[in-house]
């Protein structure tokens, strides 16, 4: 277990990402005493970076319009001899320059050194008794850089930064002094300064909003996209079965033959679950039942593709459940596998390989 390297950035990115809901119509959802678990699978994928996005064009157009309006107002106030407004309008870009020098620099980027052909799944939650779970699914290096490594941030040189820090404080104090002075004169200066402050507030809320700026950063600087697939499970065991079926590392893999190994249950691919579900005899039986259910499902798919017809009744008990039907967790295994298939289809998850 480890903490996310940039949790606030990750939270902002998730809030801007598109969302798809997957319905769970399994009979387990109709139980009298359900313990629902909310699962959000976040599909992380690369962007090609071709062309400008709509969000980027909106921000560029708004910035150009703002500069034209600022210059126009400044010239008009000089003509009208509203010198308090002129001083206030000139201080605004000077304040922006000081902020950029002291706190600006190149836009943060991910520390991704090279690509990978493999996908991975990482489970995230606030604590082990959480009912809202996140599962990040995507290219191995991309998921690792997003969760485990801090963003690459390039700032300006620290030389003479203290001069600009002091200048920033003086400029902010000057803005307040000019605004109060204009209000006391009750002249056109007060109206112009009020108009500009209100314009800045509205543009920050509706144009340069955190949602739009974060989405623009994802597309233009970070170079990846996030897509959320949300589902509700009936219990903790159904949640774990869904994660097991989604995880591309669940089934062992032979890199020489490029084939999955189906000889037996997971040798070490479920160790990530130890903090959630302790190792014991019951867990071993549950793992064996889950493996049999996943293997039986795969064989049934092959058989259906070969024969083109299935005479199985929808209410017929699967063969793997005969030895485990007495355990309470047995009924949650099919739910998890079915929901994993739905999530894969909704999110276009590609499996082990990118």
Short description:
With 354 residues, the chain is of the alpha/beta class. It contains ten helices and nine strands.
Description:
With 354 residues, the protein is of the alpha/beta class. It contains ten helices and nine strands. It has helices at residues 7-16, 54-79, 83-103, 140-147, 161-185, 188-206, 210-222, 236-246, 281-307, 332-347, and strands at 19-22, 37-46, 105-109, 119-124, 132-139, 152-155, 224-233, 253-254, 259-260. The strands form three sheets. The chain has a five-stranded mixed beta sheet. The chain has a two-stranded antiparallel ribbon with strand order 3-6. The chain has a two-stranded antiparallel sheet with strand order 8-9. A hairpin with a 4-residue loop joins β8 (253-254) and β9 (259-260). α3 packs parallel to α6 and α5 (161-185) crosses α6 (188-206). The longest helix is centred in the C-terminal third of the chain and has 27 residues, at 281-307. The radius of gyration is 28 Å and the shape is elongated. Mean pLDDT is 86; it is low at 302-315.
């Amino acid at each position: 277990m480890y903490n996310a390297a940039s949790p606030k950035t990750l939270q902002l990115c998730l809030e801007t990402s598109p969302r798809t809901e997957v319905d769970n119509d399994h009979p387990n959802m109709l139980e009298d005493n359900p313990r629902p678990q909310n699962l959000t699978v976040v599909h992380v994928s690369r962007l090609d970076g071709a062309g400008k996005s709509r969000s980027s064009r909106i921000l560029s157009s708004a910035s150009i319009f703002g500069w034209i309006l600022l210059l126009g107002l400044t010239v008009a106030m000089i003509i009208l001899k509203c010198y308090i407004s002129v001083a206030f309008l000139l201080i605004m870009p000077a304040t922006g320059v000081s902020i950029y020098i002291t706190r600006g620099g190149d836009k943060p980027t991910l520390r991704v050194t090279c690509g990978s052909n493999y996908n991975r799944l990482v489970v995230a939650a606030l604590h082990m008794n959480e009912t809202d779970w996140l599962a990040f699914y995507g290219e191995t290096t991309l998921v690792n850089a997003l969760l485990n490594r801090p963003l690459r941030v390039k700032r300006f040189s620290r030389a003479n930064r203290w001069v600009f820090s002091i200048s920033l404080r003086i400029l902010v104090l000057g803005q307040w002094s000019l605004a109060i002075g204009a209000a006391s004169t009750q002249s056109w200066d007060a109206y112009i300064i009020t108009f500009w402050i209100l314009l800045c507030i509205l543009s920050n809320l509706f144009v340069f909003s955190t949602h739009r700026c974060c989405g623009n950063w994802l597309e233009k600087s970070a170079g990846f996209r996030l897509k959320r697939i949300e589902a509700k499970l009936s219990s903790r065991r159904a949640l774990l079965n869904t994660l097991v079926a989604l995880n591309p590392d669940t089934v062992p893999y032979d890199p020489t033959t490029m084939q999955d190994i189906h000889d037996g249950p997971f040798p070490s691919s479920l160790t990530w679950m130890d903090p959630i579900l302790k190792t014991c005899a019951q867990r071993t039986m549950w793992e064996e039942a889950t493996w049999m259910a996943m293997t039986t499902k795969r064989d049934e798919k092959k058989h259906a593709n070969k024969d083109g017809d299935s005479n199985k009744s929808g209410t017929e008990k699967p063969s793997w459940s005969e030895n485990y039907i007495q355990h309470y967790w047995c009924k949650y295994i099919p739910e998890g596998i079915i929901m994993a298939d739905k999530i894969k289809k909704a999110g276009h998850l590609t499996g082990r390989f990118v």
